[in-house]
Amino acid sequence: MEILSLGEKIKKCRKEMNMILKDLAGERITPGQISLIESGKSKPSMDLLHYLATNLNTTVEYLMESEETQAEKISKYYRNIAEALIYNQKYDEVFEYLQKASTIVKKYNIALEAAYINFLFGKIYYLKNNYEEAADMFLECVSVFLTNGKYEDLINTFMYLGIIKLNLKYYHIALSYFHQAEFIYNNNDINDETYIKRIYYYIAKCFDSLGKKEKAIFYLNELKNKQKDINDKRSYAKTLLQLAKELEEKGEFEKALKLSDKFKKIYNDLYNYEINCETENNLGKIYFKHRNFEDSIEHFQIVKDLKLNNKDSNIADIYLDLCEYYLYKRDIKEFEEYFNKAKLYINNNMKNKIKYFILSYKKNLLEENLQIAEESLIRALDCAKQNSLSKEIIYISFLLGKFYIDNNEAEKARGFLNSGIDSLNNAKSIV
Question: Which residues have C-beta within 8 Å of that of residue 1, sequence separation ≥ 6?
Fold first, then answer.
């Protein structure tokens, strides 16, 4: 893809049609005048521009399009590709496209495009847990989005800044960012309720982390009327992405750009679907933690339905959460139904496999099947060790220690408790 001046476009079209200067000039203008226009030394009148466009089999709009507008379009195309690659977790390829876009917008000093590029750089740094670099990128976007009235982008920026501070346990700072996002949403015409759902969820999470239960519950309740399903369009989006790349390679850039806009919207919808699942699942866990079981199961069931409707292969996690719920309620029949379903979808997800064994331990311990309970915990520990999952190793070692204490096997208990303590100390030293 190249950015061309008016004269360069005329020359390019002329060459593609195998015309010499004399052919294009005809009786309307001299070849010398055409040459001056192509070299940028002369500008054609509108009347002459219409003549040239007609004879070059193109449009006046194409010939008049400024270099800045062309640069903006090309940058937007690269950004759309980058966002699709981010969604598909191809992070190394993303930088290539963002660097191309960045080079273009710097040359033509396009501030809004530069902000969008910085936002995507921030997103990559965030996904790689480079929080300081991510925050710097996001902060550079704020004033540009605000000045240009890009309120949805501004909300997304505040959300990322808030989540970063939340992950770093700076809860009050995180709250300030989430409240700024809430203010922008409430004071502008934004119809997508996905934004306010995310905002309310993270505000509730901050208050919960600060021990302010009533405020957390208030925002959780605000969420209850804001449910929204999003259809699965993953395969369609991938097809559009491939077609866009093929069209771009053939030189049909305008068509490629339109397709890239389409798959960007679809990927945003997919992202919203995943956010919905994450939000609803975490809401279920928060309600469960506060022993609000009616609301807890409601949110778990929403996640289950979302995943089933979208044919999500990663459905084992919600089945396991439902198992946890029904085990606590001592409903063994419902537990076993979801436990058997979870087994079909665990595949190679080691964390889900470990959770499956721990639930087996809890269920068999409840039914006093001590040998099966013990075997389940040992299998869970083996999985954790094989995959170097330090948090899981510590947790399971202490569970085994308690199990053997309760069954008067002090020597075994001591061994696992010491092992858990050693793992914990190693984890602290690494941090």
Answer: 74, 77, 248, 253
